[in-house]
Batch of 3 targets.
Target 1
Amino acid sequence: MPPPRVAWVMDTLDVSFACNRQVDDALIARLDGAIAAMRADGSMARFDLR
């Protein structure tokens, strides 16, 4: 099966994450790390994210 591809972009929008204050600090650190890794490997740009 071929990988998914963008067929047509109708609009773009900003995406944000919000977490409850009770979310464990270790989980927040993992999320931050994942976002940093996506910036570093170009994933954010491929999905038009900042």
Target 2
Amino acid sequence: MLLIKSPTQPLCSIDFEMLWYLHLGASGRAEGGLVGSQRASATRGTTCRVGECREERLSGEDNRASPRLADLRGSGLQARWRSSDSRPLLITTQSRQKTVTMTVTNRAKVLSIIPHVSGPLSVIGSGSIAYDILSDRKNKVKRPYYRIMLVMSIVDGLSSFALAFSTLPIPAGAEGVYGAAGTTQSCTTQGFFIQLMMISPLYNLILSTYYLLLGKYHMSEEEIARRYEKNMHVAAITIGVGFAILGLPLKLYNNANLWCWIATYPSNCETDSGEPGPVQCERGKHAWLFRWLIFYGPVWIAILCVVIIMIMLTRSVQSEEKKFVKLQDNMRRKGSSCDEEHKLDMNSPSRNHLEQDPYDASSSREEALSPCWCSIPYLDRFKVRHPRAHYRLASPGLTTNSR
């Protein structure tokens, strides 16, 4: 039997196969989740089924006192109770109280500490890429591919640096947050740089577009840089930085449990669907909507565009492969007929001098090149392309057309 109670009075008793972890924040909202699976019933004074507990309400006397209400939801279970203070709920199972408390604390610590490790590793990786590009400015910085990778690495590094602080910038005293030691200003700063992370998927879209122009439309790097690169950089940076700045006057950057990002304050002033909560929002009103407008929406659009571009590029490569295979078959057929013509030519009277002078260098060279010249007309249809130029093989020589 698991007993959930406030510091002053029992609230309800619940039979569980495993345990709940709960915390009642300053706003009166119970935050937590089910560690295991619910199997029995919930009661408040008398035994009732889960469905009955959903409809349970406090008495009129309690409601007139304007108490804070806390909702407990999970695995089909919902109960409502009165609680007038903001202290944490105590979860006891007689002998298992200590175990439950340690589970909640360790989970919060682990989730807070992980970004302190993964964040610096990401910063090191992004910095290594940027250093590798900048250390060879003469060759790499001049090419569009490396310039795209450089900006992407810088943006990833800034966002990872902000994430590495984890819960530290969250205002001190935040309920249910381990390691919070910041202020509203530090939280806003972290949220701003985390929001800049949206630039990264936009640059993945730019990189995919670069490959499409290079592979499918056979543009040179110089042409891509001249016609498209500048506009792509301006668009991605303007959208990313603009959306991040938009969150400042709207006060969108608040405590999001693991770090500061787009969230409401207090946390229960709005639901995830935008419905008003029991208290009024002081900061971050309509945060759920702005998350989609300035982050999730653009990111999903970028992902969809990348998928479409990759499909187009794959089909283009497959088409080129089919043309190349067909060209090889034609060359093989033409090569066999060319060999027969070459044998007839070798038996002609004009070749009788070879018996007298078998080591004539000019004649031997002409015979060796004869099969090659037979295949040249077919090479005229095949183009070998390079990022800087594309080459067209044509009879009787090799010509270059630079774009």
Target 3
Amino acid sequence: MQGALAPSKFKESAQPLHLHITHTPPSAGEKPEDGSTAEAAVATDAGHVASISIQPTDFSTGSYGWKGNRRVNVELTNPETGHKETVAVMINVNATVVGSKSAKDPKADEAEAEEKEEAHEEAPQAAHEEAPQATHDTAPPEEK
């Protein structure tokens, strides 16, 4: 497995991901014999709850990946009455690329180094610039 992509490469190449939420457990590695697509499988899945598209994003932590959310209604059977009830559920998905927090853009590293160098060069120069002189008034305050 290779390291995480540079953030700029991720942004250029990442596409949305599409998730299907279902009550039906996945079939381990089985593909439909008829060559049908995932969309066709969803259409025939009696346990299908929702589909969610998650979009490429940068997280505030410095990592990148995909995120998305969707509010869905999930039907449950009340164990006491046997009646079907619907509950509203908010589904939030964050899919972080492993190692992306430490991934850097080579150009960003160069720019950051230049900024530090400029700040280092400007600091001594700023100290030599004229600072406002403090005045000390030694006269006693006027009495009223």
